[in-house]
Design a protein that fits this description.
Length: about 300
Amino acid sequence: MNKLAVVQNSIKLNSLVDNFRKFLDIAPLSVRSYTSGVKIFFAFIHANQIKNPTRETVIAFKQALTESGKKPATVALYLAAVKRFFAWCEQSGFYANIAREVKAPKIDKGHKKDCFAGAQVKSILSGINRNTLEGKRNFAMFALMAACGLRTIEIARADIKDLRNVGGVSVLFIQGKGKTSKADFVKLPAQVENAIRDYLQARGNVEESAPLFVSHANRNNGQRLTTRTISGVAKKAMINAGYQSARLTALSLRHTAITLALMAGQSLADVQAFARHTSINTTMIYNHAVNRMQSECESVIANAIF
C-alpha cells in the first residue's frame, strides 16, 4: 500500500489529485478548497524531500502552516483536505491513512468581525450618493446586507426573478452558503425593497433572468458582481463614513443584522431561521455576545468601589 513516492512528478501528481477530485461528493467550492489543500501538502513534502510521508509528516505540515502565519481556520481547512485525501488513499488501497488521528487546531468560536449599531448603519447609508446608477446599486446592496443579513455569496447569486411575493409579503429567494437551490428567502422591509426597485428602474428594461446586481463599469458592464467586488463596495462605504478598521467588513453587516434582531428581543428560534443557521449553537454565539454587552457587571462593581 506504499505507492505515494511514485507520484512526485507533476504529471502523476495531477492525475492522482484529479482522481481524488472525482471521488469527492461535495459542493464545487469545497472541492476546489480540498484539492488546493492537497496540492499544498504535496508541495510541502516535495520541498522537504519526503518520499514516504508519515503521521509525523502531517503534524509537521500543520505546524509549518501555523508558523507561516496561516489562521487556525485556514490550517483546519487544509488539514481536513489532507485527512480526506488519505482516507481516500487507504480506501483505494493506495496508501495508509496517516492523517486519521491528527487533530485540527482549536478555532475560536467567537466572531472575528465587529458589528455596527443601527445609527452607524444609517450614517453609512446616508453617505452613499444615490444620484448615479452605481450609487443606487450600492445603496440597495448595502441596505439588503445590513437589514436582511445576507452574505456576499448570496448577494452575488441573486437574480431579478428571485424577487417574489409570498402571502402578500415581498421576499427575495436566496441560495445560501453550501446550498444548491434557492429554497430560502428573506422578507424585504419596505425601505430595502424601495431601494432595490429604484435601482432596477434606473437600469431600464432587463430580463428577469438577469443578475439582481451587476457591474456598471465599461469593461464588464452588465456582468454579475463577484463577491470580491461586493465586499469592496461595502468596505468603501464604511471607510467613506469614517469607519476604517480591519475588523469591519461586509460580513460585519450580517453580524449587525443578527445582533440587532436579538437585542430587539426576537427569540433564538426566530433569529436562527432569519440567519439560516443550521445549528442553533451558532445563533447562541451571537446571543452570548448580546447578553454580555447588556450586562451591568462592570458598572455595579465600579459603583461599589468608587
